[in-house]
Structures
1.
Amino acid sequence: MTSQIHTGQPIIDPPEDGHFRNDDAASGSTNPPSPTTLSLHLTINGETHALDLEPRVTLLDALRDRLALTGTKKGCDQGQCGACTVHVDGERVLACLTLAAQVEGREITTIEGLVDEDGTLHTVQAAFLEQDAFQCGYCTPGQIMSAVACIREGHAGSDEEIREYMAGNLCRCGAYPHIVAAVRQAARELRA
């Protein structure tokens, strides 16, 4: 990393990997955080996590790289595939397009947060297993998170409606008929 002085302000070129680091924090120093980081408190799956992150860090990267919550997948990283779908205050969002700083103070739920404390699967997760609604499984966490929201939003009344409201989640393996069947089954069970 190099610095240059321009009109009295230091200009810092980004490191080769693009990630600024607070070297003092890594060494255990009590110096204040670098001016390139924000101190955030994120509530994820009911637990609050304190993180020092650059302002440009996405929720997806914070989840996967900083908190080891790797159930949320990085697919296209451009908001096109839905693999990174999580819930923020009960609404589905694409974690790759959401900055971590935007969700401070809000409730974030990932695929890991759907399972009950005793290990019981969420109704949608169980339906995905029963209907064999996955092949490679890479898109499955995002599909499940969208399916939970789809049902909660009341958009699981017909196969056509399920397909429409699940359209933001892509499956390269083509397991769509099984995904629709799983959402239909879970919606029926949750209504009962």
2.
Amino acid sequence: MKKIYLVLMLVISLFGCTPNSGSNTSITFHETHEPKKSNAPFSDAVQVGNLYFLSGQVGMDHSTRKLVTGGIEQETKQTLENIKDVLKHHDMDMSDVVKCTVILSDINDFSAFNKVYKTYFPQKPARTTFAAKGLAVGAKIEIECVAVKN
């Protein structure tokens, strides 16, 4: 059911949000702003019109390429700082985020994650949060976003 929902949201985003339904909206796969990730098999951001689909970020300190220590709160903070960096690279900020998908490795971390999350998003973007076993690099959290550039 979640896969159907995500596909439906993507289709609506791609086709339902264009200003002129008959226009061809270009798709741009942006290169990463981090040289160490230049060989990654994904883009940090894909632009469709004025929508930016950001790939999931984890609580990795990109200067050391290691997860930050300190548990879910520190990983959440670093994850959101990483999102800020991607947005800044595209001349946006956290206020441009309209949708987040949050994956926790343990749903019991929800309250602690949410405490940090809400300090970054006072505008309250739409959000889906769920837990999954085994996130990349042993992370406790991963967040992907959709932002609108005005």
3.
Amino acid sequence: MENARESLQLAKEESDRVSQLTFPPHRPHLDSSFYEYYALRGIRVDRVEPGYVSCTFKVPSRLIDRNGNLASGAVANLVDEMGGALVHVEGLPMNVSVDMSISYLSTAKLDDELEIVSTLLGRKGGYSGTLVIVRNKLTGELIAEGRHSLFGKHASKM
């Protein structure tokens, strides 16, 4: 338990940097939220087809863990966002995640350029299944593979 506490505790320098962060109040539908600014900034959409989205993402310093790797939570966030973006229908509420399973196969370092590909595995009613692959664009090394299940309302047929 003590090891877990130590690994989660911020060092004085880290604590000081966090306390100095300032963000203006969020204006919905006008500004990016802190989450969007912090976690999603830098994702570049390269190709979109029905059931397929391909993006590029250069690993920024803000998402690096203490070991110098892209944080596993950041990888999970990419799987969540890319799976959700693939099945989102404009004008309908966002789908909710039902289940997500991620296999972490390797690590990514600062400034590595990643290719993130999301494909639709299938859709039944409001339920959709996606596969998200994260790989190092330069080496082709597989960083993570995620399966993401989502549920959303369909437009009324009336």
